[in-house]
Amino acid sequence: MRVFLTGATGFIGSHVIPELLAQGHEVLGLTRSNAGAHRLEAAGVEVHRGDLDKPETLASGAAAADAVIHCAFDHNFETFFANTKKDERNIAAMGEALAGTQKPILITSGVGIGTPLIGGPATEDVLNPRHANPRIATELAGAALIAKRVDVRTIRLPQVHDTTKAGLITPLIAEARRAGAMAYLREGTTRWAAAHVSDVAKLYVLVLEKGEPGARYNASVEEGVTARAIAEAIGKGTGLPVRSVTEDEVAHYFGWMAPFAALDMIASSAWTRARLGWEPTGLNLLTDLATMDFSALADA
Questions:
Q1: pLDDT tens for residues 68-108?
Q2: How far is CA 227 from CA 17, 169, 258, in A?
């Protein structure tokens, strides 16, 4: 297939590219810069010029392909709500270009969207349209396309990591440096699901080749790693002191990430693994944190 890949020069997209090429697919990669175009060409990818702020450029890329993998997202968390609305517009534009075809579009969400109202691990069968996380806009955009008979498949991401990045943990390190200590709330028992980026990249290709229209897939490998374990690993790697904090201290130590301090973001991928035969082999989160080059994140 000829696959239009948004976020092709990003953390996840750049790992999806070799997985697609290895399976004999052609890749049409989105980029807005000359530097990005050079990187894509060097990777054996055809370049499609476009911008997340111009939905029509994503629509034209979708129209020129046999399938779409939408990994791109504006990760400026200071404008997070606006960025989720941008994602909604881009998904709608690409979906419109695919309407009336059998071409699939894979969209990217977060595992937290599948958290049951009664608590417990997030699962693929749960979708709460009134979810408090603004990222619900992504899945509502997908649902609107499904209602129009577009083949939408959703991949929900946990903390995706290697030794250079680790999802929300990367900006958390920056906040810890600002505050002078790596903190966790109370006993640090809240947990975050995680997966190595290599396993996530393989899952995108499996969903492309074997996924079902309308289905959601959890990319979690570890169901949950405790906040205390994460904090201690970061403290060891950065040399920052590690401390337990109270609710009154969260704002100081977590900054804009304060709302995440008490969140249990755990997720099961049992259904995804059984359905697709996904067999993760990447390193776990704490292993990657133990060998991470934290000096490279000094300005994160």
A1: 999 999 887 778 888 999 999 999 999 999 999 999 999 99
A2: 32, 10, 13
Q: List, in sequence order, the alpha helices (H) in the chain.
A: 13-22, 34-42, 55-63, 80-98, 136-147, 169-179, 197-210, 227-238, 250-254, 270-276, 285-290
Bridge-based pairing of strands 159-161 and 151-157 is: unpaired
Angle at 65 between CA 107 and CA 136, to 5 degrees: 15
Element (H, E) at 226: strand 222-226
Q: Are strands 104-110 and 159-161 parallel, antiparallel or unpaired?
A: unpaired
Tokens 């776990």: give the residue. Answer: 284
User: Would you state the pLDDT for residue 155?
Assistant: 98
Residues 6+ apart with CB under 8 A from 24: none
pLDDT tens per residue across span 139-191 = 999 999 999 999 999 999 999 999 999 999 999 999 999 999 999 999 999 99
Instruction: With CA atoms as reference, report the closest residue to 135 among 110, 157, 152.
Output: 110
| Long-range contacts (CB closer than 8 Å, 24 or more residues apart) made by 231-234 | 231/182, 231/183, 231/184, 231/188, 232/182, 233/286, 233/289, 233/290, 234/169, 234/172, 234/173, 234/176, 234/182, 234/289, 234/294
20 neighbors 44 (Cβ within 8 angstroms): no
In whole angstroms, what is the distance from residue 293 CA to residue 247 CA? 30
pLDDT of residue 74: 87
* Residue that the structure tokens 């699939």 belong to: 104
Is residue 294 over pLDDT 90?
no
Give the Cα separation of 127 and 109 in Å (integer): 11
Residues 206 and 9: their CA atoms lie apart, in Å, by 20
